[in-house]
Amino acid sequence: MHRLKFLLPFILTLYFLMCGPSWANRAYVTDSFQITLRTGPSTGHQIIAMPSSGQAVEVLESSGDWSRVRIANNGKNSKEGWVLSRYLITRQPWEVQAAALNEENSRMKENLAGVSMQLSQKTDEVWKFSENLKEAKEALDKLKADYESLREGAADYLKLLAAHKRKEMELETTKKEIERLKEENVKLRSFQAYKWLGVGAFVLLMGLGIGSVVGRQGKKRRSSIYP
């Protein structure tokens, strides 16, 4: 128990140190407020500026309830002085955050409008592409149908061409056969002519021979009758 009483002051000191202000390099004047920047860490010192809510300041040091800060106006005419630490916050004031959010919201709306316009354009492009794709598909189907018809026609044409070639070959063979038969007919006619000529000559010779024999016999008969 005595040991706990001995450690209690150190624990409380550590707690207050942990809960006390721990300043970063930058702080802001608290929300919806205007404070005084003085030449020293007390209300008795002269006021040299009146920073408004949202004003960014650079914390140089802290002493008790006061902090020495530097205020820069766009990098020009910087002022240093003391302000009450309770009027400083390490986050951006709500007004600044709200203004930033409004600006971001406006920018997002503009971007959204641009995106909506682009989406509309893309939708039109997709629609046109769909129409072109539909027309291309119809053209392709027609081309396929024409190709099938042409292929069937080509198959029929090839069949007809093959049949025509066969007929031509048959006709050529028939012509050759006719020429051969003509030649044989000519030869046969010549042979028949010679045959009949030979037969005629033979008959003539036979007639002459028979006539000669008959004539001799007649002479003999007449000589025997008329000595």
Describe the structure.
By secondary structure, this protein is α+β, with helices and mostly antiparallel strands. Helices cover 66% and strands 16% of the residues. The chain is rod-shaped, with a radius of gyration of 69 Å. It is built from two helices and seven strands, in the order H-E-E-E-E-E-E-E-H. The chain has two domains: 91 residues, SH3 type barrels (Roll), CATH 2.30.30.40; 96 residues.
Brief characterization of the structure:
The protein has 227 residues and is an alpha+beta fold.
Strands, helices and their partners?
Layout: H1 2-19, E1 26-29, E2 37-38, E3 47-49, E4 56-63, E5 66-73, E6 76-84, E7 88-89, H2 94-225
Antiparallel strand pairs: 1-4, 1-7, 2-3, 4-5, 5-6
Quaternary structure type: single chain
Sheet with the most strands, sense and barrel status: 5 strands, antiparallel
Q: How many distinct helices?
A: 2
The gross shape turns out to be: rod-shaped
- Domain count, please report it: 2
Features:
alpha+beta; SH3 type barrels; two-stranded antiparallel sheet
